[in-house]
User: Fold Orotidine 5'-phosphate decarboxylase from Companilactobacillus mishanensis.
Amino acid sequence: MTKPVIVALDFADDFECIEFLSQFPKDTDLFLKIGLEMFCQFGYPFVRSLRNRGYKIFLDLKLHDIPNTVRRTCEMIAKWDVQMLTVHASGGSEMIAAAKEGLANSDTKLLAVTQLTSLGQDELENELQIPLQSQDYVTHLAKLAYENGADGVISSALEVPLIKEATGNDFLCVTPGIRPKSAQVGDQKRVATPAKAKELGSDAIVVGRPITQADDGFNAYNDISEEWK
Assistant:
């Protein structure tokens, strides 16, 4: 897999999204993330329309349910020709394996979410009652995903070296929480710049508002891509 900059779409309506995408030349090899909010609003027809335009799709639904439900859901999504799909690693080994089984007849990469980048050590200890340090918890979940067939994980760039050491260099680490130096951190706590993510070994970065809310989205995308490369 080439190491893409994945643009996280976070628009209020599909027209606004298409208007944003119109800034990009048709030959731009765009990789787009559709999260839960946009998917619930516009559904599969929106996914299909973006695939028909030639865009690669990271469907970030973070599935987390009993294994049989996840397997059957993944069997349906396997027909959609998306490039990436997420589940929660905390769903456990059987659920992760079931998701991979559901995607068996597709090229869709299965990525497991370790710890949300909005969660810090305080939330881990005091709210979720996890007795591990954040990095140890992330590494544990990454190994669980690796051992049960996932192609990679979603994690902070700061944890990529530990994850690669615990799994393997071919195990994908896709990194949200990316902010160029000039951008505000926003609602994420474990963040990194594109250059730092590259240095730490991330296989792809996910960037939303610094691109989608920029005055010139195309130039913002190019600037971040240059820093990433």
The radius of gyration is 17 Å. Residues 36-52 form the longest helix (17 residues). The chain has a mean pLDDT of 91.
